[in-house]
Amino acid sequence: MSSITLNKITKSYGNVQVIQEFSNVFADKEFVTLLGPSGCGKTTMLRMIAGFEKPTTGEIKLDDVIVSGSGKFIPPNERNIGMVFQSYAVWPHMNVFDNVAYPLKIQKVSRNEIKQRVENILESVHLSQYISRMPNELSGGQQQRVALGRALVSNPRVLLLDEPLSNLDAKLRESMRFEIKDVQKKFGITVVYVTHDQTEAMAMSDRIIVFNKGVVQQVDTPMNIYRNPVNQFVADFIGKINFLHGTASEGKIEFSGGQSMFYSGDKRGQVVVAVRPDNITMRTDKGVLRGTLTQAYYLGDVNDCRVDIDGTQIRVIAAGHTYGQIAIASKIWLDFDEYLVFEGDGTDQTKILS
After folding, report:
1. Which stretches of 153-221 are DSSP H helices?
2. What is the pLDDT of residues 268-280, one digit of tens each?
3. By CB neighbour count within 10 A (0-12 exposed, 13-18 middle, 19+ buried), where does 85 fall?
């Protein structure tokens, strides 16, 4: 298997720079996710690693071999990279065996070796019983596993996946996340995964790279990105969060409605308090801020509430059994278990309190 080194990579189309300079190393056997909204540059980065796009500047290495840059370019078919696309891209006129075997036939591998390797791969992706079926006889999840098996059968150095689950229904997406992660661990392969779904990224990744408008915002573990986002964009993109704008002075943050909360930092001026809905407790006796419960939705496992704080709607996610314990229109207190404070209007890169 292989590591991937990106050294001062940029990508431009004419005068439009879609990837600003970025350097990093994806370690051997690491699962790295490129995460961000549509049009942020994550798929372009993946395509440069695959060899479908050339970097404008910088170089890409697989292990110690330069595959793009420094006057050298190795085409995709010579990089020994497996790729799975958003569309299943399985051949409709071939059965499961022939679809998975196709890369080996192109490489002129012997018939006996093809049979053994395909059967082993189909067992790994739980498709052994469907070996003779045609694609139109398979579910969406099964077709995606065919695509995954085809990408793995050549023993690639790196596996690249571009939004592979976005065409599946929610329940199947959830199960496929864990199947892909299990396959990655079994084969010990380096994976680069593209998605706009933060839940996928959190569940599967060793590290997440968050993109916005071609700029890498943060590179970190899922836990650190969730609990210690470097700016308001990352905090907002990863998970659910509330933002309260205020002014910090000595010992407190004052909000526009006249309420305030304790603040131990040394900054002054505009700040944004960021608190996740599941880090807020509704109380009837005391708390940080006082408001009015305006809505409550029973979702079985959670009680999804909205609380008005002087004109600002705050989302609170409580345990399902709390539904109905506080009447709508009741005055309540909110207690913050954890929160973040960003400097200024929250669009800069500096987190000043956690």
Report:
1. 170-187, 198-204
2. 799 999 999 999 9
3. middle
